[in-house]
């Protein structure tokens, strides 16, 4: 299914675990170091550098950009490293996160209770995923290098829904 954000927000409710999605719109990169910094900011009552309301966060840190390219290779990082920050996602009004691999039980519960979606994309395909990035802009935590927060405009960014709004999780094997 092709989804354009923010125009097709209602279509997100129609998705089920296992659905393949081609996303067009804006996503933000953030991973370990940026999540830790945002956690500290939230604990200190500071305003976050980005309004993540109704957004998708992609757990990625692109490689350096080669001349003529928009962004370097931008494959997903292992999502379980961000599980301890799952409690922040509803506070930030995040719609979905994107990464690779399963999430722990507490994270899954937080996502299901708050109707937050979790998408996966293929590790090792960073160069291919980079082709769907039409514009990339570093917007916060510049000192973190690849782990800074970036705003990406994507077109046809391919991913699979792993945890849907109904509590289905492709990593729950019942066989």
Question: What's the layout of helices and strands?
Answer:
Layout: E1 2-4, E2 20-29, H1 32-43, E3 56-58, H2 88-91, E4 96-99, H3 105-113, E5 117-120, H4 126-130, E6 133-140, E7 149-163
Parallel strand pairs: 1-2, 2-3, 3-4, 4-5
Antiparallel strand pairs: 2-7, 5-7, 6-7
Main attributes of the structure:
175 residues, alpha/beta, fumarase, five-stranded mixed β-barrel, 4 helices, 27% strand, globular
| E-strand count | 7
CATH topology: fumarase
Cα-atom Rg, whole angstroms? 15 Å
CATH class: Alpha Beta
- Structural class by helix and strand composition: alpha/beta
Total helical elements: 4
Helix and strand string, N-terminal first? EEHEHEHEHEE
Euclidean distance between termini CA atoms: 27 Å
CATH superfamily: Fe-S hydro-lyase, tartrate dehydratase beta-type, catalytic domain
General description of the model:
This protein is of the alpha/beta class and 175 residues long. The protein has a single domain (2-42, 49-163), classed as Alpha-Beta Barrel (fumarase). 17% of the residues lie in helices and 27% in strands. The protein is built from four helices and seven strands; from the N terminus they run ββαβαβαβαββ. The protein has helices at residues 32-43, 88-91, 105-113, 126-130; strands at 2-4, 20-29, 56-58, 96-99, 117-120, 133-140, 149-163. Strands 2-3-4-5-7 form a five-stranded mixed barrel. A hairpin with an 8-residue loop joins strand 6 and strand 7 (149-163). The chain starts with a strand and ends in a 12-residue tail after the last strand. The model has no long low-confidence stretch (mean pLDDT 93).
